[in-house]
Amino acid sequence: EVAIEKAFNEAEESIFYRHVVPRCVWKIQRWLQIGQEKKMTEACKTLDRFIHARIASKRVELLSKCNENEMGEAHVDLLTALMGQEQAHDDRFLRDDEFNLFVAGRDTITSALTWFFWLVATNPSVEAKILEEMKEKLGTKEKTLGVLSVEEVKRLVYLHGAICEALRLFPPIPFERKQAISSDMLPSGHRVNSGTMILFSLYAMGRSEETWGKDCFEFKPERWISEKGGIVYVPSYKFIAFNAGPRTCLGKEISFIQMKMVAAAILHKYRVRVVDHVATPSPSIVLLMKDGLKVQIAKREI
Fold it and tell me: How would you label 278-297 residue by residue, b for 16+ Cβ within 10 Å and e otherwise?
C-alpha cells in the first residue's frame, strides 16, 4: 500500500461525501474529527508531509548545485522552475502549487485513458481507423514507435476525435458546482438568488440529444472531423470536459498531448481486449471505472 496513493483516494472520497450530505453534518464531523472528516484530516497531513519533503529535498539539491556552480545540471521540472524564479516563493505557495499539479494531472488523465481504451476495445472499427491514421501519417511500419513529438501528435486528427468522444461520454469530472456571489439572471431567464448553489452534470450534458443530436450515445470520432480533414472547433460551453470561460483548465492542451502520446504508443504495439467485464462508473468527484478495466494485452503483429 502506497501512503500517498491512499491519501489521494481518501481525500477525493471525502470531497464527494461533502456534496451528498448536508453541510452541517460534515462540519460537525470535522469539528469532532470523526467519520469521513477524520480521514480527510489524516489524508491532508500525509499529502503535506510528502510534498514538503519533496520541497526540502529539492532545496538541498539546488543548494549543492549552486555551491558547485552546476545549476545548469539540476534536474529540470516545474518545482525547480518555481524555486528558481527571481521572486522567491515561500513553502506554502510551493506546496499549494505542487498539490494543484498533482490533483489536476493524476486521476483525470487516468479516468480519460481508461474509458478511451474501453471504448476503442469495444469498437473495432474505430481502432482500425486509428491504426490506419498512424500508419499513414507517422509511417509506423517499424516494430517500434518512438516517443512522439508535439508536431507528430498534432497530425493524428482521428485519434484526437476519438479522445474527444471519450471525454464527451465520460468526462473525468462528471459534475460541477457553482454558487452565486450575488443575485443574477441566467441566460435562460431563471432568477438566481445570492448564495444559491447550482449543481450540473457534465456526464448528462455530454449525452444530451438537444446538444449532440440523435446519435449522442454513439462513440463517433467522425463528429469531431471536418470535411477537409481538420479538427472541428466546439465551444467550451458545449464540450465542457475542461470547464469553460475564465475557468477553462490551464492544462487542456498538454493533457491532449499526453493522452495522444500514450494512446498511440500502446495501440501501435498492443491489442487491448476487454475480458468478461461490465464497465461501471464509480461515484466520485472523478469518473473512475469501478474495479478498473479488466483486459487481455497481446503484442500486435507488425
Answer: ebeeeebbbbbbeeebebee
Cα dihedral sign, 127-132-134-135: positive
Q: Which residues pair with 299 in a beta bridge?
A: 270
CB contact set of 135 (below 8 Å; sequence gap of 6+): 141
* DSSP-assigned beta bridge partners for residue 273: 296
Specify the pTM: 0.83
What is the residue-wise DSSP string for 132-192? HHHHHHH-TTSS---PPPHHHHHH-HHHHHHHHHHHHHS-SS-EEEEE-SS-EE-TTS-EE
pLDDT of 82 reads 79
pLDDT of residue 15: 87
User: 204-218: per-residue pLDDT in tens?
Assistant: 999 999 999 999 999
Q: What is the pLDDT of residues 78-137, one digit of tens each?
A: 788 877 765 667 888 888 888 888 777 788 899 999 999 999 999 999 999 999 999 898
**Phi and psi dihedrals of 265, rounded to 5?**
-65, -45
Mean residue pLDDT of the chain comes to 87
Q: What is the Cα–Cα distance from 14 to 112, expressed in whole angstroms?
A: 22
Task: Give me the long-range contacts of 75-82 (CB less than 8 A, separation at least 24).
Answer: 79/54, 79/55
* 103 C-beta neighbours (distance < 10 Å), count: 16
- DSSP code for 68: T
What's the rounded Cα separation, in Å, for the pair 161 and 140? 20
**Chain centroid to CA 6: how far?**
18
Whether residue 53 is predicted with pLDDT greater than 80 in this model: the reply is yes
**Strand 270-274 to strand 281-282: parallel, antiparallel, or no bridges (unpaired)?**
unpaired
Q: Which three cell numbers stand for residue 48?
A: 503535506
Backbone angles phi, psi at 142, to 5 degrees: -70, 165
